[in-house]
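Example record

The entry below shows one chain as it appears in the dataset: sequence first, then structure tokens.
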Amino acid sequence: MKAITWHGKHDVRCETVDDPEILNPRDAIIRITSTAICGSDLHLYDAYIPSMKAGDVLGHEFMGEVVEVGGRSTLKVGQRVVVPFTISCGACYHCTKQQYSACENGNPADNQDLGRELYGEPMSALFGYSHLTGGYAGGQAEYVRVPFSDVGPLVIPDDSLEDEKVLFLSDILPTGWMAAENCAIEPGDIVDLDGRVIGRHQGIVHFTVGQRKGLGIASAAPLYVVKLDAAGRRVVVGPREALRMDRIRLRDVNWIGDGALERVIGDGIEMFVRVRSTRAPQPAWLRAIDGAYEVELVAGEEGVSPGQACVFYDAPSGQARVLGGGFIKSAAAKNTAARAVQETIAPPLVEAMRG
């Protein structure tokens, strides 16, 4: 059969491999009708996950038709099934508590010991995801062997449901569902810049800073998400100009420029900074304030939110050298008067860009 196989960093091939066979009475063989590439596969593609071997068959999001079953499988030939990422026995301590990703029996004990070193705890066996998780062949193939087929596969009884409507039950949908449950998503208020409630939302996770569409609020002028107040479950909206931030407080700053940052920063370092990956670096000052590092953007930037990266350069383009960077902890705008003063006094970096 044809299958997608791993052969090293950035080396993935479509090759002919052996057809799978029934090895255990609880096995089933599935003819793959749909499969997907998960973001987790990128970790394998980039060779971040150890214990991969040349020829390993990838894929852990798949579904298909049952074509062969072992004597103890509860599946029937001809059934359509979606197969979960995990390979779980259904009878161990964790499986009886529906903690299937911690199954004690699918993954050999020596692999569990290796997995504990990487992830902190033992894990279940997984399809197509290294020998840390059992070395089982994955579903980016024409056929796949499914161990413990009486436990994991979900039978799709309605033939009117297309593969695309149920395939993501294999991994991405339950992953997102569990994340939503863990976040305890709750409704909250949509407020304007003065704190007045102008609407309601069903979960702050549905919004991003800079978002304009999908707010569900009628207004004479366009409104944008300016801030997400997770603690208060509030979405703050305002006009586009309210998105522009000038001062960015950073965390986890890494400096690779000349000298130690704490010694060379002095009253501030002129540099160029990129906040949005689609924008060119812009002139800025890096300063040490109250034991932390703060960037002052000369022209300001829209859509700045915590968690984004901020990268320092010594030039706006060309052979620009990276000086370091950090992650955004918070951002704020100057008052109107300060902005007006700033705009009347062009710093040397701005003149350099104009000239």
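Notes for this example: The radius of gyration is 27 Å. The longest helix spans residues 172-183.
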